[in-house]
Amino acid sequence: MARRSLTKEDAPADLTIPPAPLRGEPPAIPVALPSDLLERRPDVAAAERRAAAANAQIGVAQSAYFPTLLLTADGGFENSKLASLLTLPSRFWWLGPALMRTALDAGRRRAGVEEALANDAATVAAYRQTVLTACRDVEDQLAVLRVLSDEAVQQADAVARQSGFSRSPPIATRQVLPRISR
Q: What sign results for the dihedral spanned by CA atoms 125, 130, 133, 138?
């Protein structure tokens, strides 16, 4: 079969691929598949990232218990007389830290931590379910592969028996003809 390269001018409808039988056996599936294959699935990887993000939100919620430290600076000009406002002795500056802490929040921080913990538990449960579903999918497909392999063997045996019958006469003919010729 001659091969030619496709150009931009070729229409997709002009491409024809003649049917051909599959050659060779499919690759053998190992008895034990590594769990790395499950980790590569996009649904499992996405669920794992969501669980990690929910876990990080627990730390964010717990950090609300700590005071806030601000480093601030201020500066400008200050004078009671407008004429001498922009003179050198009228300028001022201030630099310093400020420590802020909310004294009463009516349980808002504790509720935020509990919400983050509950969200983490939900995403971990969703991750666990995603992994179980992925394992079930792999197991189902391996079972289908086994059934199809058994069917292929049976079909090959049937074809071999059929082709063997076409070359030699059936058993009934081989048993009856010698009796008739006597």
A: negative
* 66 neighbors 100 (Cβ within 8 angstroms): no
Predicted structure pTM score: 0.57
**Which DSSP symbol is given to 103?**
S
- CA distance linking residue 88 with residue 92, whole number of Å: 9
The DSSP letter of residue 69 is E
What gap in Å lies between CA 102 and CA 66, rounded to an integer?
9
Cβ-defined contacts of 64-68 (< 8 Å, 24+)? 64/109, 64/112, 64/113, 65/109, 67/99, 67/100, 67/101, 68/99, 68/100, 68/101
38 contacts 131 by C-beta, under 8 angstroms? yes
Residues whose CB is less than 8 angstroms from the CB of residue 52 and which lie 6 or more positions away in sequence, other chains included: none
pLDDT, tens only, 68-103: 888 888 777 677 676 666 677 777 777 777 777 777
Question: Residue 47 CB: number of other CB atoms within 10 A?
Answer: 21
CA distance readout (Å), 100 to 42, 66, 69, 135: 44, 9, 6, 50
